[in-house]
Each structure stands twice: as structure tokens, then as C-alpha cells.
Design a protein that fits this description.
CATH architecture: Sandwich
Protein name: Late embryogenesis abundant protein LEA-2 subgroup domain-containing protein
CATH topology: Immunoglobulin-like
Organism: Thermomonas fusca
Distance between the termini: 69 Å
CATH class: Mainly Beta
Largest sheet: 5 strands, antiparallel
Number of strands: 9
Length: about 160
């Protein structure tokens, strides 16, 4: 009798564990510059890395971000990537941007000296689960870019 009761209890716990399903967690996404390359016309190719830390796939709809160097605003990233990123993964959206004169000069100086530079990325990012409404997330990122050996005008 005790053996049957123990077997029944174990089976009940096993069935209860199977019924809950995977946890659906939506976490705040992040953004960073993966690569910045100066074009011949003075504009920049920016590879923006979008990180999805959620347990579900997310759709990244738009960005309103400002790139700043130590001397102030360098460029705006007002983009509509419309990019789907798998759970706990990242993807890159590339865009061509026109820098501010101060941003262009600061980057040219860093490249001419063969040095990297610190940057900040601030603004908002619109993202949401594929089956839900997007919401606005505040982005604050401090990082640095370094020259890429063998790729003139590129920083990572």
C-alpha cells in the first residue's frame, strides 16, 4: 500500500512539473557599436549590435540613439531595423549615418594617431516580443572603439 502511494505521489509530481512549460521572460535589450567605418564621402558605416536577453524572440522596430565622443555629439542613429532576434542572442543592423562636424574631426584625429576612442550611446530603442506590442527601452552604453589592423578607417 505504501509503495503504491509513493508511486502515485511521484507520478503526480512528475505530471505537475511537465505542465508549467518554459518560463517566458522579457528582459531589457542592449545596443552597442560593433564596427564604425569612415566612407570616402565622409559618412560612416555603423554596425549596430542589438542584444536580446529575453527568453523569447524579440522584434527591434526602431532606434533614436546619439553617439557621443569625449568632445560631444558625433552622430544620430534614427533607424528602423525591423529585425527579429532569437532568444538570448544578438544580431547586427548596418546603417550609413552623417556625423556632426565635431564627430567627424574627433574620429579623424583618432584614426590619424592610430588610437582608439571612448564613446557613449544614449537614447531609446523600441522592441517587443514577436506576439506582443513593442515598448521603449532607455539605452545608456559607455564603451570604446579601437582601430582595426589592416582595415583603414575602421574601428571596432
Amino acid at each position: 500500500m505504501i509503495r503504491r502511494l509513493a508511486s502515485f505521489t511521484a507520478l503526480a509530481f512528475l505530471l505537475a512539473a511537465c505542465g508549467s512549460g518554459p518560463v517566458r521572460r522579457v528582459s531589457e535589450p542592449a545596443a552597442s557599436i560593433q564596427q564604425l567605418t569612415v566612407r570616402a564621402d565622409g559618412r560612416w558605416d555603423v554596425a549596430l549590435r542589438l542584444n536580446n536577453f529575453s527568453s523569447v524572440a524579440m522584434r527591434f522596430d526602431s532606434t533614436a540613439l546619439e553617439i557621443s565622443f569625449d568632445n560631444g555629439a558625433a552622430a544620430r542613429l534614427d533607424l528602423q531595423p525591423n529585425l527579429e532576434v532569437a532568444p538570448e542572442s544578438a544580431d547586427v543592423h548596418s546603417a550609413v549615418v552623417t556625423p556632426t562636424p565635431a564627430g567627424r574631426a574627433r574620429l579623424a584625429t583618432a584614426l590619424a594617431d592610430g588610437r582608439g576612442l571612448s564613446y557613449s550611446l544614449r537614447g531609446t530603442l523600441q522592441a517587443g516580443p514577436l506576439d506582443g506590442k513593442p515598448r521603449s527601452y532607455e539605452i545608456k552604453r559607455e564603451s570604446a572603439l579601437s582601430p582595426v589592423p589592416g582595415l583603414p578607417g575602421a574601428l571596432r
